[in-house]
Design goal:
Blueprint lengths: L1 H19 L11 H7 L48 E4 L2 E16 L2 E8 L8 E4 L3 E8 L7 E4 L23 E7 L4 E7 L3 H6 L3 E7 L10 E10 L18 E4 L10 E4 L3 E8 L6 E5 L4 E6 L2 E2 L6 E3 L1 E4 L3 E8 L4 E7 L24 H8 L31 E2 L4 E2 L5 E7 L25 H6 L9 E2 L19 E2 L3
Parallel strand pairs: 2-5, 4-9, 10-13, 12-23
Antiparallel strand pairs: 1-2, 2-3, 5-7, 6-8, 8-9, 10-11, 13-19, 14-18, 14-20, 15-16, 15-17, 15-19, 20-23, 21-22, 24-25
Bound molecules: copper (II) ion.
């Protein structure tokens, strides 16, 4: 550990020296001065905020690329909260230009971080091409450190594989390398830095690479979504993800965004929906669960699964370094959540730093501690669910345990979470249709006394009476906590 961290420090010192003499290209999203300020390693106070807060360049807007005047032989993939990388055709070759660069990224409203990404995005924009395409990809290095790009899952010549030291020289700051190969397969793949992987990938250097089939065997899906999963360690208040973290990640993202920063996934009733999930988390596998449906896993990054071998699921297991493609027909209207079922992954920062107070009577504790520490709050006597709901002040530049207000109540999930909204009609501009209105008789609600009676339901005598109104509590705890009183005891 010690020697490796020393090596790393040495590496950054060298990287900084190279950056000092590097020539940066002018194309891109951030002015040079800001780039340097945002990325001068090593930073003395890790994560310290600067006086001039840069605006995020990667803000979670979705951009689909469709070249003007060209009919595409496929339905474009939608990478929610991200973009498709533009391309052009030069003498029959599909030409892309990817720029490895620092990106100021917003994970969710309230959490902005200095990351490394591609072409102004975190993660990088999605590549989209067709089986049989000859692709030429220019990669410009605008980082203060050498890098390479590996095309994860693609069948290509060894020298195009992008592994620093093994298949090529690293791309030095200021240099532009050319990758060129023919796409011999179709499916869902990924790309990422393969030089100083731990640092560069943990700072965000990854993206999706979609190859459409030349002659699709199946009818085209009506909705084709790409979703990349990743994880981050961002100390509360820090301005940069910590690339040295080994196990304790605290921000979990879909396409680089954390709920409530994730856009909802939309589908019209009856449409065939395809979701291509890729996982490049540093250490975690994810269990992506969709409510209201079962779906079929139709492909992996190893290829299509023949129909007889496709297996039905409600949760798709996502090993790191893999993609899975799932399909279903959106035949059930509603708001259906889609989230990682590893429950710390639907929490963000601070979620696992507290002592377990569940079931402990903390009545009066806050008042006592506040004599010593003004503003202190006891948290978690009845769980963490009401934290976000209370509108409690959170440390600057953090989204600790914050969900979002829902239609009926507060949503107590964040992180790797979004909502599939299936409607008979959707707004023409692709905007969020709002909350689903459950038809009469299809909404869970308080059981009427007469129903309980009719069905012979006997209630326990010692039921708690919970007041969920913040402020009614006798103590300023976070959560309904102390207003819970026992009845009949
Ligand atoms: Cu997960």
């Amino acid at each position: 550990m010690n020697s490796s961290s020393l090596n790393r420090r040495g590496f950054f010192a060298r990287a900084g020296a190279v950056a000092g003499g590097a020539v940066f290209l002018t194309e891109g999203s951030l002015p040079l001065a800001r780039l340097r300020a945002a990325d001068s390693y090593p930073s003395p106070a890790y994560g310290a905020t600067s006086a001039a807060e840069p605006k995020p360049t990667s803000d979670g807007s979705t951009k689909i690329f469709a070249p003007e005047g060209m009919t595409l032989p496929y339905r474009p993939v939608v990478t929610l909260n991200n973009a498709t990388l533009p391309w052009k055709i030069v003498d029959g070759v599909k030409v892309f230009h990817l720029i490895a660069e620092p990106v100021v990224h917003e994970f969710a409203p309230g959490l902005i971080s200095n990351c490394w990404g591609y072409s102004g995005r975190v993660h990088g924009p999605t590549f989209e091409a067709v089986e049989g395409d000859r692709v030429r990809i220019y990669v410009t290095n605008r980082l203060p450190a050498p890098t390479t790009v590996h095309w994860h899952g693609l069948l290509l010549p060894s020298g195009m594989d992008g592994v620093g030291g093994v298949s090529q020289k690293a791309i030095q700051p200021g240099e532009t390398f050319k990758y060129e190969f023919t796409l011999r397969q179709h499916g869902t793949y990924m790309y990422h830095s393969h030089h100083d992987e731990m640092t560069q990938m943990q700072l965000g250097m990854m993206g999706m690479f979609i190859i459409h089939p030349k002659s699709p065997a199946q009818p085209l899906p009506d909705r084709d979504y790409a979703m990349m999963l990743s994880e981050w360690k961002i100390e509360v208040g820090a301005r940069r993800p910590d690339p040295n973290e080994m196990t304790d990640f605290n921000v979990f993202t879909m396409n680089g965004r954390s709920f409530p920063g994730t856009a909802p996934m939309l589908a019209k009733l009856g449409e065939r929906v395809r979701i291509r999930v890729g996982n490049l988390s540093t250490m975690s596998h994810h269990a992506i669960h969709l409510h209201g449906y079962n779906f079929k896993v139709v492909a992996t990054d190893g290829g299509d699964i023949p129909e007889a071998g496709q297996w039905p699921e409600t949760t798709v297991f996502m090993p790191t370094g893999a993609t899975r493609t799932v399909e279903f027909v959106a035949d059930a209207p509603g708001d259906w959540v889609i989230h990682c079922h590893m429950l710390h992954h639907v929490m963000t920062q601070m979620g696992h730093k507290f002592g377990n107070l569940i079931g402990i009577n903390t009545d009066g504790l806050t008042r006592k501690i506040r004599k010593l520490i003004p503003g202190y709050m006891v948290m978690g006597q009845d769980g963490m669910g009401e934290m976000g709901d209370m509108g409690m002040k959170v440390p600057p530049n953090s989204t600790p345990m914050v969900g979002a207000p829902g239609q009926y109540d507060y949503i107590t999930m964040g992180g790797m979470f979004t909502i599939l909204k299936v409607r008979e009609e959707l707004p023409a501009d692709g905007s969020d249709p709002g909350w689903y209105q459950s038809p009469p008789g299809t909404l869970a609600s308080l059981a009427p006394v007469e129903d309980l009676k009719r069905d012979g339901i006997e209630l326990p005598k010692d039921l708690p009476t919970a007041s969920l109104t913040p402020g009614k509590a006798s103590d300023p705890v976070c959560g309904p906590g102390t207003s819970l009183t026992k009845v009949g005891s």
